[in-house]
Design goal:
By secondary structure, this protein is mainly alpha-helical. It has a single domain, classed as Rossmann fold, CATH 3.40.50.620. The protein is 50% helix and 6% strand.
Length: 379
């Protein structure tokens, strides 16, 4: 951050997002966008339920005479777990739960997945990513020095899901994406590169990778945004935007019904993501994704601004725990602690230092915003 530090008077978003804008009252565009764009068109009462059930009927009709009428990517975290519950118990659907094992599951995530599948009596399909390829790509991304270190996992998760759905002719994909806990989208500078960009992956891997990615799943953003959607007719639906969704209430319900256990914070179902967001990103780049997470909860009245400021003033995990995780990550990636430390201390870069389709992706996002298909700030 250059110049004077500024923080939103309504949320805790600050000018670590270099494109943030403030009005004369010190309110950021994250706040004003929520108030003027998202909130007026977001309905979780009778209107929301009516629309949810209409969509449910459409999915059921399309899924007649099929084993499953939709697919849900399940991580064991709250959003995807509650989506599975809503799909089965509220919408009356027959979803296939789809999990991608990229090598970083916590024991708690695995336990939550097992309990949810058993409790909802739903089938689970697990896709296991080739670890040698996963490891090689993750080390390549670390050596690239960009902030976007969770892209290899995200690419594995979503590409596997889209490929499986296409292969098995499952038209509807249900996701846990929602306004309630995610109305503040993380800016691209914080490691929030938008979409699966095969050009970026190939460029980074060609420079820093050692092995060929023979089986690693990659579905380019243009493929699933255009070909999958308009040619194959695949639709992505977000059920949590149509029902009351309060984080603590959802956690309590899942815990009471299935023995599901809540995590300390968002994305802690993955050991790598927890390490990346709690250690790597804030200490190497100065970015705190918790700012967006907590700001979303502030805007949806699930956390006070004072509570958020207090919580973000200290790490989620202890120093001892984080340093043990540093050793764990290094060892799992076949790096010595010294090698990982050298990468950590290396010169920071951004994805703009590599080839990518970011200009085309941004153009697409601007079109979506103008059409009202994307209401969150997208930058």
């Amino acid at each position: 951050m250059e110049g004077q530090y500024k923080i939103c008077t309504r949320t805790i978003m600050d000018n670590s997002d270099p494109n943030i804008r403030f009005n004369e009252r010190g309110e950021s565009d994250y706040y004003t966008n929520y108030i003027s764009v998202i909130k007026p068109s977001w309905h979780t009462g009778k209107d929301g339920l009516s629309e949810l059930l209409t969509i449910s009927d459409k999915i059921k009709k399309d899924g007649e005479n099929r084993e499953f009428d939709c697919i849900i990517g399940l991580s064991g975290g709250l959003d995807s777990s509650y989506t599975a519950y809503i799909a089965k118990e509220v919408m009356g659907l027959r979803p296939l739960l789809f999990h991608v094992d990229a090598g970083w599951n916590t024991d708690q995530a695995v336990s939550n997945i097992e309990k949810l599948c058993k409790g909802l009596n739903l089938d689970l399909y697990t896709e296991v990513i080739n670890w040698e390829e996963m490891k090689d790509l993750q080390v390549a991304f670390l050596k690239s020095q960009i902030a976007d270190q969770d892209l290899p996992q995200d690419y594995a998760f979503f590409s596997s899901l889209y490929k499986f759905a296409r292969r098995n002719k499952i038209k509807y994909v249900l996701t846990g994406s929602n306004y309630s806990t995610e109305c503040c989208r993380e800016p691209e500078e914080w490691g929030g590169f938008p979409g699966i960009d095969t050009l970026l992956v190939k460029d980074i891997h060609s420079k820093f990778g050692k092995n060929k990615l023979k089986t690693f799943p990659l579905v380019d953003i243009l493929n699933y945004k255009i070909y999958y959607k308009y040619i194959l007719g695949m639709e992505v639906f977000k059920p949590l935007n149509f029902v009351p969704y309060t984080k603590t209430d959802a956690e309590k319900l899942l815990e009471e019904k299935f023995g599901w256990q809540p995590f300390q914070h968002k994305h802690h179902e993955s050991r790598f993501t927890r390490f990346y967001e709690d250690f790597w990103l804030p200490r190497k780049f100065g970015f705190e994704k918790r700012r967006a997470h907590f700001s979303s909860l502030i805007l949806t009245n699930q956390m006070t601004r004072e509570e958020a400021l207090e919580r973000i003033s200290k790490p989620e995990c202890s120093e001892e725990f984080l340093h043990k995780e540093f050793d764990y990550v290094a060892d799992k990636l076949d790096l010595t602690r010294t090698q990982l430390q050298e990468i950590f201390e290396g010169q920071n870069k951004t994805f703009y230092d590599y080839r990518s389709k970011i200009k085309l992706i941004k153009l697409g996002s601007q079109v979506m915003q103008k059409l009202g298909l994307e209401k969150r700030l997208f930058r």
